[in-house]
Amino acid sequence: MSSWPDLAALELLVGIDDHGGLGAAARAAGIAQPNATRALNRLERQLGTRLVRRGRTGSVLTPEGTVVAHWAREVLSDTRQLLDAAAALSVEHHPGLVVAASMTVAEHLIPRWLGEFRAIHDDVQIRLQVHNSMQVCDIAAAGGCDVGFVEGPGVPAGLHSVEVARDELVVVVPPDHRWARRRRPITVAELAATPLVVREEGSGTRRTLDLALQEYDRPAPLLELGSGASVRTSVLGGVGPAVLSTLAVAEDVTAGQLRVIGVDGLDLSRVLRAVWRPPRALSGPAGELVRMVVRNRRARPLGGIGSPTRP
């Protein structure tokens, strides 16, 4: 496909499924029907399949159109979450809720959380700050945010916290790395003796790894980078092994682009927490957000990526 599908056309397709016809879908989207027809025609040409059956009684989705409409709902939902998170990053409004989040949480969880929160509290203006976990704790302690979200082995004294999710760090390598050909897990000593691509000091991922390997003398890192995404890209490019959140690598592992390497006797599970300064009872929009996240976590826990990949 030479170009991305038009989101407005996807919205029209979903609208036909919801409202029972192109005219109603066009009105709901605020698009003139001739323009809506042209947009759907372009989408059909792009995808190479007929999506809408047009007749004297109106327009209905073909079986293929029904399947594409289902996928389109997910694309539009993700897009709305992206827009909510991007709006929260803007500095051009006066927020009613200031949230600070670590990089891992901001990259993989905050868009969904803020999207769900805005669906309930669309009158609350949100400002999102993104830092590493140590910086988030410092900002929360100084009163620079209403609530922070961090990952790592603990939080500083003076801050209250509650568990909002659990995560696991895993060792990942490209499929052609020598560790990917092994039939047995590597040892903790082997991992500690290997130069790694790592996050910067102060990140929750780095703190968890450093604490787990604190008894070992370790070489200097291959690279020290400021986000999980940049570490992941380096591993995919063959720079070297890394220890990353399952949230960051799940899709690459499923696609076979990265391999998870077992480490005998090493537990890198960790807790993701909401943090705030006293009082203990978190009230207002921040309290509502944290309670929503905790409720959703119980109903929909984070999924893992299965056992380490073997050759």
Short synopsis of the structure:
The protein has helices at 7-19, 22-29, 33-47, 63-89, 103-108, 110-120, 133-141, 188-193, 204-212, 228-236, 246-254, 284-299; strands at residues 52-55, 58-61, 97-102, 126-131, 147-152, 160-173, 186-187, 197-199, 223-225, 242-245, 259-261, 263-264, 269-276. The protein is α/β, with parallel strands linked by helices. The strands form four sheets. Strands 3, 4, 5, 6, 10, 11 and 13 form a seven-stranded mixed beta sheet that branches. The protein has a two-stranded antiparallel sheet with strand order 1-2.
What does this structure look like?
This protein has helices at 7-19, 22-29, 33-47, 63-89, 103-108, 110-120, 133-141, 188-193, 204-212, 228-236, 246-254, 284-299, and strands at 52-55, 58-61, 97-102, 126-131, 147-152, 160-173, 186-187, 197-199, 223-225, 242-245, 259-261, 263-264, 269-276. It is of the alpha/beta class. It folds into three domains: 7-79, Winged helix-like DNA-binding domain superfamily/Winged helix DNA-binding domain (Arc Repressor Mutant, subunit A), CATH 1.10.10.10; 81-163 and 272-299, D-Maltodextrin-Binding Protein, domain 2; 166-269, D-Maltodextrin-Binding Protein, domain 2 (3-Layer(aba) Sandwich), CATH 3.40.190. The strands form four sheets. Strands 3, 4, 5, 6, 10, 11 and 13 form a seven-stranded mixed sheet that branches. Strands 1-2 form a two-stranded antiparallel ribbon. The chain has a two-stranded parallel ribbon with strand order 7-12. Helix 9 (204-212) links the parallel strand 8 (197-199) and strand 9. Helix 1 packs across helix 2 (22-29) and helix 4 packs across helix 6 (110-120).
